[in-house]
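TASK: fixed-backbone design
INPUT:
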């Protein structure tokens, strides 16, 4: 196999499929998937569901990012998720369901939740709701809180796995805690390959940024994390959203730590150009550089889909930092900038 080009060897900015091909090829040259990587055939989805039933961890694609899946009712399996990610036990997990009816058996829906579920499920919306009495989901998965973060993914492989497993699946992003979220199976293999029983390879994630998280456990709904569904679209259905700060309290949803989604090398945001040794992650038309562009046309949906894949691409030897050009603070740009600010935050 010929050596793939390094990012700096491309004369035109990389975006979309070209960037993903470069990432996948580079990683595949370094790692042998062996029996861990599985194509999402009917047989392999059945195999993955069996592994979940045995308490094993299975990574699988969703429309947002790849999830690290475990049987949500199995305390030992949930503990294994925290161990595999190196995740603080006070940080709750998102629980994935096959249907709204299944979710309603675990949490209490009100009219607001039903309106949002009808509008955005399956899709990139997570709702934090109060647990029902006798809720079968492990208390460890909700960090001991009386609430649960729930959603229905919009991905054929994820949905097939949920149906085949016959249980709710706890699935945080399939990466080490605080690191860049995975949007391709190769990202999972590189980071967690020796800590999972199987990885269902469903190709690149379409949305490429995590779900929006809304807290509906109290009277006033609150935006806990911006994501794949715009806050304005949610407010159009249920009214104004309160903002949630980091604070000192235990997080009510994933992704609320001040530092999160971070590469190994430093990130400098709102940069107009790269300094010596830095990679430039560009945005918009007319940018002349040798690195990558989230969206040459300035399309925020394309930029969101490319964000984590391109951060993975640049988080490599040869660069001492990543300079990121400004992204508009509107629509999906709000979620993109949230991830970039957290990635750029100083370590505690």
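OUTPUT:
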């Amino acid at each position: 196999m010929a050596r793939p080009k390094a990012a700096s060897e491309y004369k035109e900015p990389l975006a979309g499929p070209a960037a993903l091909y470069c990432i996948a090829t580079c990683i595949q040259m370094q790692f042998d998937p062996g029996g861990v990587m599985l194509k999402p055939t009917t047989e392999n989805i059945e195999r993955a569901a069996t592994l979940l039933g045995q308490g094993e961890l299975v990574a699988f694609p969703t429309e947002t990012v790849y999830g690290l899946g475990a049987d949500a009712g199995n305390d030992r399996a949930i503990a294994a998720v925290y161990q595999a990610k190196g995740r603080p036990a006070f940080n709750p997990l998102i629980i994935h369901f096959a249907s709204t009816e299944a979710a309603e058996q675990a949490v209490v829906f009100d009219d607001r939740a039903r309106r949002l579920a009808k509008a955005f499920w399956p899709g990139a919306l997570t709702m934090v709701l109060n647990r029902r009495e006798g809720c079968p989901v492990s208390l460890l998965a909700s960090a001991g809180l009386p609430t649960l973060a729930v959603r229905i993914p919009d991905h054929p492989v994820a949905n097939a796995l949920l149906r085949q497993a016959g249980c709710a699946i706890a699935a945080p992003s399939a990466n080490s805690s605080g690191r860049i979220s995975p949007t391709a199976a190769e990202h999972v293999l590189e980071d967690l390959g020796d800590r999972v029983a199987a990885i269902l390879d469903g190709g690149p994630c379409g949305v490429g940024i995590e779900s929006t998280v809304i807290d509906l456990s109290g009277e006033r709904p609150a935006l806990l994390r911006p994501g794949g569904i715009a806050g304005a679209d949610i407010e159009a259905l249920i009214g104004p959203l309160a903002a949630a700060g980091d604070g000192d309290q235990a997080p009510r949803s994933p992704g609320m730590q001040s530092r999160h989604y971070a590469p190994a090398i430093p990130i400098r945001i709102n940069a107009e150009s790269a300094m010596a040794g830095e990679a430039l992650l560009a945005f918009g038309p007319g940018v002349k550089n040798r690195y990558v562009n989230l969206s040459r046309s300035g399309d925020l949906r394309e930029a969101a889909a490319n964000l984590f894949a391109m951060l993975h691409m640049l988080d490599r030897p040869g660069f001492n930092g990543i300079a990121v050009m400004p992204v508009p603070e509107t629509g999906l740009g709000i979620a993109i900038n949230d991830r970039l600010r957290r990635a750029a935050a100083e370590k505690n």
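COMMENT: The chain has ten helices and 15 strands.
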